[in-house]
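User: I'm putting together a teaching handout on how multi-component assemblies are represented. Below are the sequence lines for each component of a complex, exactly as they appear in our records. Could you produce the 3D structure of the whole assembly as structure tokens, so the students can see both representations side by side? Please keep the chain order the same as the input.
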Amino acid sequence: MDADHQRDPNGPTPSTLYGTARVSVQRAVIARVVREMRTAFTAEELHLAVADASPGIGLATVYRAISAMQEAGAVMTVGDRDGSALLALCVRNDHHHHLVCTRCGRVLGVECPLGDAVSSAATREGHLITSHEVVLYGLCVDCREGTRGA
Amino acid sequence: MDADHQRDPNGPTPSTLYGTARVSVQRAVIARVVREMRTAFTAEELHLAVADASPGIGLATVYRAISAMQEAGAVMTVGDRDGSALLALCVRNDHHHHLVCTRCGRVLGVECPLGDAVSSAATREGHLITSHEVVLYGLCVDCREGTRGA
DNA sequence: TCACCAAGTGAGAAGCGTTCTCACTTGGTG
DNA sequence: CACCAAGTGAGAACGCTTCTCACTTGGTGA
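Assistant: Of course. Below is the structure of the complete assembly, with chains in the same order as your input.
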């Protein structure tokens, strides 16, 4: 399912993740770590992973990088774990949503075939929908297949 | 649109909001204030409103009441405002979602006609969906009508 | 009606995720 | 190479939320 987030064989570049912001050495490391993330992650988890790849990068820098990536639309908050924001890589540019696997914790991109359905449903009640967010919970393909045998 | 959240002419009772938890005088006051809320609210806003109705009720009590109501499924977190959790009354027992009006800030219940669509869309990609959350953004009926003239 | 006790309360301290500050460093441009 | 806006690290500060503790209250059984 990496194709979901890494259709380009080289994956998104640091500049893709940060938009037009300057990409320092530290941010390049953070971008690489984020790209290697296979599940949703908190800022602290990212900081640990980053410190593992390149000790010395501060927590503030991680938070600033997250902020830059969110601004660039490359990362988004998909939930909350123990009071910390749960983040996920969000590379596909087309409108999509996230499936949070309740077994392995991964967050996968899922196409959004609902746009019209959602809007029309609410419009029927008289509201005007301009945007929407959907978070799905369940089992991803891998965990679903693993479950069959167990 | 009050019918959305108050179909019973008397509205939900405190015990409805708290499930099986004990309903003290303070919790009854908090429940009443929550029922009168017309928009999504933060814990602090609720505390202010509660203090207005019955001075002396502590912030910790408000947080504990919120926690109890969330556990009972009567209140849910629908977002985040300046770092504080944004809460909304959630009385209808049938599966529904929330429309956050970007103009007046109210959070309205909207029927969920998507259940099958959402599940089948993700299922098509091989996942197994067990639940989902949808948050819609746009203009509620009132604001939409107000907009036409302006 | 009374006694008992689990559950709830108020006040404030503590915890903890996140943001800010400040002096220093670095990337990119001319 | 010089310049300077942008980024960095360390830690303090901030603010939301939870916890602690002594006290009160609601509900149950006798």
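A couple of points students might notice: Chain B has two domains: 2-89, 96-149. The helical segments of chain B are 2-5, 14-18, 25-36, 43-53, 59-71, 115-124, 141-149.
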